[in-house]
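F.,

This is the one I mentioned.
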């Protein structure tokens, strides 16, 4: 009993020293939860009444308000910021006596062991925030109940969020205490916290930036702010984003992802907690007031900061100077000297100290120069390495920007089905062991190495692809390559014919699609009119899949689809306009598919010679030529392109004569079929110089939306080009 009373006495004594932080925490949580949520609910209800919000199709107005409230009191970015801020504050304020030699001597002279003192201060910091947070949460529940935005689910998620947020608080709190134990004053501690929170991302950003800048074949889909291992702030930030998605009904995979990140935070809290206590036990009283509490750590930490800062400064100057090597090196030198000087001043609190520890400049400069040289001169052979055939277990291939309609989804037909990035899906799912495909990909890579096309700039004669090698030793390598399709048709046709490529690129090949065929709807479109397919869906999937077996790169380059076939899956409970879709081209050579569509009355016949526009249905055709000059097209560093139009160069001609219209119609291709035709890959049909507008006779019954046309240039009549081309003096 005496021990228990003694503990509570120490708690009360420590609370007295924390008075202003306790009041600040109470006030902040009161404002963030009950007060702000009362205002937020009122605003949300008013927006619902005025009809100015979109409920995402699965909620009515009151449910939307309640869901907003539930998300705000459980997993919200404002709560994350407040929680992290108070974790840092309580860590620094609780152990601030370590910054003063006088206070340290006073604390040490008290008849309390250092272990009990640490436990008292440590638990008080967590307890204060936990009590303030919990009381404010109960008040927020009361506010939600009064304003009609409350439910049992809100209590469950609110309390669950409280526990998760307290775990996050503990992780940040422990990391902040580590910073306190390593430093000797408030300013350096705050800097230390920032370094702990951001260092991993600085390294990630640096690695990604250097590889992007100097490795021509660098291939990355990674997110530099995802899956943090050291920073609880970024780990939890990504976690609550997942939880928010789950709360809004986007599937249990987000809950699984959140729990994985929560487990990482639990490990971080444990590791940082142990490290903080060990540092506390090893810290000497003489460290009070010093920048760094442990002398031996000063050089290590300084070098770990100087090296990446030096390289990042070089990358920054490189970007400002248009990739100049001279300015890159100059930027590195400036970054090296500035980082040395600033850190040295922070360490010594003396501006003259910038002249001390010159060996740090040499060591950090040598390390940065070695890293820069290794990347710049590619000592590792990153850009030139092509695995030998006998080293490769399987390969994958995808276009950097594949046909948009070739959608891919994970967990097909489950409640939490979700869209997957097509390029990432192909690289992770395709595993071709076919030696012909392996050799074709190695040939494309070797040809790319010979040409050394700069893939950071637009090049209309090449298309960028991603190649992935899964090696027999367990490693996987992903590289980008520039491919001239005309030159590489044999290799490309081999890849298109690969069964693994076909199975993954066209998801209708998945047996799950056939098993759930009765849940699908199919629509055929020729770009002007749409018609639903009402026959046996399993049969249509089978026939189209077989025709896609013969779909080749040569076909994509030399033919144009006569239409598209879109499969749609609508989830029960969702608005009618919300559905998952897969869209595939229908080429003239897809005879079985076309035959089946005709059999079911779902095919729109084209005029002879696959002309999409029947001249008899047209009143007029307006052709606009922008007469672009070479100087009107600008190419950006990231591979983009922009066009500058001049009104003085534009010529528009409208053709109403029936004979003229008959000659022009074969050159018109529906704009809505451009993507599915592979135009974004081949560059065909992408002509910034012409714009075409067609006026149809009334009552033509066009069912496709956004009917527009692009010219097939080799079919444009000479008289059209002559009348719309600006005369040169």
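My design for it:
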């Amino acid at each position: 009993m005496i021990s228990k009373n003694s503990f509570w006495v120490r708690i009360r004594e420590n609370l007295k020293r924390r008075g202003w932080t306790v009041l600040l925490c109470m006030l902040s949580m009161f404002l963030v939860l009950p007060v702000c949520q009362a205002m937020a609910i009122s605003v949300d209800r008013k927006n619902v009444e005025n009809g100015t919000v979109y409920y995402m199709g699965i909620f009515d107005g009151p449910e939307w308000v309640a869901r907003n409230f539930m998300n705000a009191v459980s997993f919200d970015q404002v709560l994350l910021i407040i929680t992290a801020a108070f974790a840092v504050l309580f860590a620094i304020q609780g152990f601030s006596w370590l910054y003063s030699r006088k206070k340290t001597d006073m604390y040490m002279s008290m008849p309390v062991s250092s272990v009990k003192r640490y436990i008292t201060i440590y638990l008080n910091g967590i307890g204060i925030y936990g009590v303030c947070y919990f009381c404010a949460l109960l008040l927020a529940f009361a506010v939600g109940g009064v304003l009609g935005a409350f439910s049992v689910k809100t209590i469950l998620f609110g309390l669950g969020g409280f526990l998760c947020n307290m775990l996050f608080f503990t992780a940040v709190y422990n990391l902040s205490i580590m910073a306190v134990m390593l430093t000797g004053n408030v300013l350096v501690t705050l800097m230390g916290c920032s370094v702990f929170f951001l260092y991993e991302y600085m390294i990630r950003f640096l690695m990604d930036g250097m590889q992007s800048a100097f490795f021509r074949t660098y291939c990355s889909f990674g997110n530099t702010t995802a899956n943090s291992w050291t920073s609880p702030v970024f780990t939890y930030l990504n976690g609550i984003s997942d939880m928010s998605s789950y709360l809004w009904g986007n599937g249990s995979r987000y809950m699984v992802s959140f729990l994985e990140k929560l487990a990482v935070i639990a490990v971080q809290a444990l590791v940082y907690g142990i490290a903080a206590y060990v540092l506390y036990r090893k810290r000497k009283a003489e460290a009070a007031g010093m920048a760094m509490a442990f002398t031996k750590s000063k050089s290590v930490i300084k070098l770990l900061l100087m090296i990446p800062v030096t390289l990042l400064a070089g990358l920054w100057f490189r970007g400002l100077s248009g990739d100049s090597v001279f300015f890159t090196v100059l930027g590195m030198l400036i970054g090296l000297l500035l980082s040395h000087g600033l850190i040295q001043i922070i360490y010594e609190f003396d501006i003259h100290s910038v002249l001390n520890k010159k060996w740090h400049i040499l060591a950090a400069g040598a390390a940065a120069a070695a890293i820069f040289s290794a990347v710049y001169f590619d000592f590792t052979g990153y850009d030139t390495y092509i695995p030998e055939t006998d080293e490769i277990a399987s390969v994958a291939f995808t276009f950097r920007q594949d046909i948009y309609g070739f959608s891919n989804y994970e967990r097909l037909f489950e409640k939490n089905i979700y869209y997957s990035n097509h390029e990432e899906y192909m690289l992770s799912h395709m595993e071709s062991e076919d030696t012909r495909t392996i050799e074709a990909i190695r040939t494309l890579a070797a040809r790319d190495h010979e040409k050394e096309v700069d893939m950071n700039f637009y090049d209309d004669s090449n298309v960028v692809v991603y190649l992935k090698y899964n090696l027999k030793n367990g490693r996987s390598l992903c590289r980008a390559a520039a491919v001239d399709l005309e030159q590489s048709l044999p290799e490309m046709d081999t890849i298109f014919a690969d069964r693994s490529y076909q199975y993954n690129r066209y998801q209708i090949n998945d047996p799950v699609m056939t098993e759930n065929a009765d849940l699908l709807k199919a629509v055929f479109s020729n770009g002007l009119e749409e018609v639903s397919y009402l026959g046996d869906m399993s049969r249509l999937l089978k026939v189209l899949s077989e025709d896609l077996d013969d779909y080749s790169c040569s076909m994509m380059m030399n033919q144009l689809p006569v239409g598209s076939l879109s499969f749609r899956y609508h989830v029960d409970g969702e608005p009618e306009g919300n559905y998952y879709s897969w869209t595939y081209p229908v080429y003239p050579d897809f005879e079985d598919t076309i035959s089946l569509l005709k059999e079911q009355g779902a095919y729109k016949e084209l005029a002879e010679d696959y002309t999409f526009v029947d001249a008899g249905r047209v009143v007029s055709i307006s052709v606009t030529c922008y007469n672009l000059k070479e100087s009107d097209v600008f190419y950006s560093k990231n591979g983009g392109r922009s066009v500058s139009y001049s009104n003085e160069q534009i010529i528009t001609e409208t053709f109403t004569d029936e004979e003229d219209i008959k000659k022009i119609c074969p050159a018109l291709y529906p704009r809505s079929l451009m993507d599915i035709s592979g135009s974004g890959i081949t560059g065909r049909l992408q002509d910034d110089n012409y714009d075409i507008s067609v006026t149809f006779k009334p009552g033509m019954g066009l069912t496709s939306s956004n009917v527009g046309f692009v010219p097939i240039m080799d079919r444009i009549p000479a008289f059209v080009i002559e009348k719309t081309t600006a005369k040169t003096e």
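The first helix runs from residue 2 to 17.

Talk soon.
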